[in-house]
């Protein structure tokens, strides 16, 4: 039987946003590995486990640590904020898995910030959408710009991860300037800070105003499509471009 | 105090994929409203609740039913497969909410098929991605084509919802032809059938082969970006286009 290493998405932060399956897997595991901040979010709910942490950016080191524990025959979980498969560790674990053929990697999905942030704002996505990170650590900025431009041109609702950091203070402003080439400055946008954690807050604003708004690495940004509306302080995107009644009439499906 | 109506994403199907928060809300509610199939998925786990169902496509009727129950002072949950905010009922509930000012709509996020299907395949998204539905019931086909073209041009990983139905047998083939304008026929793709339910299965294949593959309304399709690889029968996308080591060297952040 192979050793097991689970890549577990724990959702936005609060224990209550984990899935039952994620809880079950963490309860089953001997060792829980993760970035210090995420381990601190779950530690109290899983007493008696061995917790191993590495600092931010040391992703490969963290993955190898997890594989080494699994190779000792322990059941190991690598926890990720949100979903393990969206800017998470599932990919790197599977890539490195080639070097650890006796260990099987299983991915346990979780609620990523595009979904948990959307729920706070109302319903900003609803329909076709694009998820784009502004971090240029592993991706050339030119490609990020290109994706923003194409997503804007396609009238996708857009969810922006990593809108800025200490080293990338003006990235969201630069992204907004690109979006404004194809989108009206009145486009309804929103942002959520500290989703599912202490200090959670949200704002709904125009794309024009978003350009001049300060964010940090704990902010997730939403840009509506051309049909998105502000309603009672929330951000609401319809499910399409035709009303249901119109569509039912057109197709005779009433 | 306002009446409460919750839009609850129940995840891909199996009870274990619900979040603790979704379970807590359904346990708290008096009435659970939904499309017949989804109600049948949760019914046994919430004994003593009142269940109300409407057939597929009767979305507005289903929402109004939920509001009417809430206006009688009952705590009501509208359940949606996956996430309530991704092709779900959160948007329509918030839109209709204008007509029911005494009822407050709260959205409880869940694991949408882009995430649960990705976990089955391995790690097909990982990085920037676009979610596109091929259903042209509420969106003109021309806009769907345009989005496919732009997403392919931007080298997004793409998750395709509603790839086909009885009335739209050749839509996935048409979509693949468009993607092939910008993407190699060797692009790594995958599909998952019946995610999180009985009969779950998956396949990894090339974009060229996907074009000629039959799918149904319970299939979710994934198209990799140019860096996506097949590895041990799974679909794996790296976190970016530079290796971490290269990036660390370049930025002096090792």
From TrEMBL, chains A, B:
CDD domains: Precorrin_3B_C17_MT. Keywords: Cobalamin biosynthesis, Methyltransferase, S-adenosyl-L-methionine, Transferase. Residues 241-254 have a biased composition (Basic and acidic residues). Transmembrane segments: none annotated. Pathway: Cofactor biosynthesis; adenosylcobalamin biosynthesis. Residues 4-210 form the Tetrapyrrole methylase domain. PANTHER family: COBALT-FACTOR III C(17)-METHYLTRANSFERASE-RELATED. This is Precorrin-3B C(17)-methyltransferase. It comes from Candidatus Lachnoclostridium stercoripullorum.
